Each structure stands twice: as structure tokens, then as C-alpha cells.
Amino acid sequence: MGGIAGTFLTLLAQLWVGGTAAMLLVPMVGIGWGFYRTTAGIYLGIAVLALWVRIWLLLHAVSGGAASGQVASSTAVPGTLALGASAILTLAFLVSLWGKHPVWSRRLLWAASLAGVAGLGLDAIAIGRDGSALVLVALLANAWLSSALLGLTFTGMLLGHWYLNEAGLPTRHVWRMAHWFLVAVLAQGLFPIAHGLVAVAAGDPARAAEVLRVIPEHPILLGGRVLIGCVATLVIALVIRNTLRIPNVQSATGFFYIAILTVLLGEVLGRALWLFTGIPF
Length: 281
Fold this sequence. Notes:
The chain is an all-alpha fold. It has helices at about 5-20, 35-65, 75-95, 100-125, 135-165, 170-200, 205-215, 220-245, 250-275. Helix 1 packs antiparallel against helix 4 (about 100-125), helix 2 runs antiparallel to helix 3 and helix 6 (about 170-200) packs across helix 7.
């Protein structure tokens, strides 16, 4: 997706795809079917909204000409088809939950997640098709990292909320979610540094210089991205782990709610930097 609308619309797609994939961290047996029905229903609703707006933008671009539209059809079509397949598979997964066949439901969840990841990848490839291989890899990594972070944050919150409804559940499930949430925060925070270092190692110092120029040229946006999206979220991720050691799932769930705010704001600031600089953050 291109343009301002497409850039920020990817937030919805990344949230739904990452959240769907994050459900794979929770076993089908032992947590309660209600968790999967509620969570899959929420993500399916987000998927319908994202696809509806996406298709509207695509049709608007086609009818008005790609140059005057918000998004070029050549960019949107492959990713839209893959994401549409992911939404259909998510619906099939949701329907399968009433049959209570965990093996088939698990396979549908895997298929929905993989189709969604492929859709995000196709969007990134379309955006970076005119750039170097390094630019393409950076766009792919950034899209998938953002999706993982958004999905783990929201699914972690929903899982913690489910613990409040179902007393006595083992904490290992929410602990696993918190662990991978911390890993995603660290990976997303280190991504710009890794991007610059890989550019130097690949013999592309001009790309590394572009990354470094973001610091003096956009200090407020970059500062907000780092302090809110990375540092504050990292602190929250560590607090969640500490509260789960007690264990206190209720407090951890509250901090997941706060993490939603910091992660979303950080991702919005990262997209603003991308629009201004062409460097994925």
C-alpha cells in the first residue's frame, strides 16, 4: 500500500495478522474455547474493516488513475489477495471452533497466519521493488517485526483478560506470551541499528548515512519513536515479566493495556518517519 492512507492502513493489517499468529503460542487444549472464539472474532472484525478500506482505496485509485489515487493498484492487488485469503481462513478457523476438533482448528490457524504473513510480505516487496536488495530486506523485516509486536501486545492483553474470567489456569501460557513480547520489543528497538550495520557490511555506506541523517533531521519524531515505542515499551515488558513471577496475572494484564498505547504510538511515529525519510523504523 502506498501513500499516507496506505502507510497507516497497514497498522490494521499488521495487528490482525500478528494477533492471529500470536494465538499459535497458546495450546488449543487447556485454555478454553471461549478465548479463541473471542480473540478470533475480534481479529476477524479488524480484518473486515482493513480489507473494506483497502479495497475501497484500490477501486478509487483504479477509477481515478494510479497517479491521482491514494494507492497504486499494482502495489495493492497481490497483498490484498493474500490478506483476503487470510481473512477467509480466519473465518473458517472461527467456525471450526464450534466443532471442537483442535487438530483441524490448529491447521486452519496456521494457514490463516501464513497467508497473512505472505500478504504483508507482498506489500513490502511491492513498495521496495524499485530499490536495492538491502532496502527490500529492511522493508520485509520491519513489516514482520511490527506485526509481531502489535499482535503479541494485543493477544497478550486478551489472554490476560481471559485469565481474569477463568481462575486457576496455569500461568505458563501468559508467561510464554510475555517472553515473546519482550523479544519482539528488543528486536524492533534494535532494528534501525542492525539496518545501518548491515548496510555498512554490505558495502552500501550511502544507505547507512541515510539512516544516520534521520537523527539530526527529525530529532523530535525519532526521539518519540525511541522513547515511547522502544524504551517505554521495554520497561513495560520487563514489568510484565516481574509481575508474572509473583505471579500476578491481573497486574500483568493491566500493563499489557498500557503497552497497547505505547506500541501503537510508537508504530505511528515510525510510519511518520518512514514517510518523511523513506527509512523503515
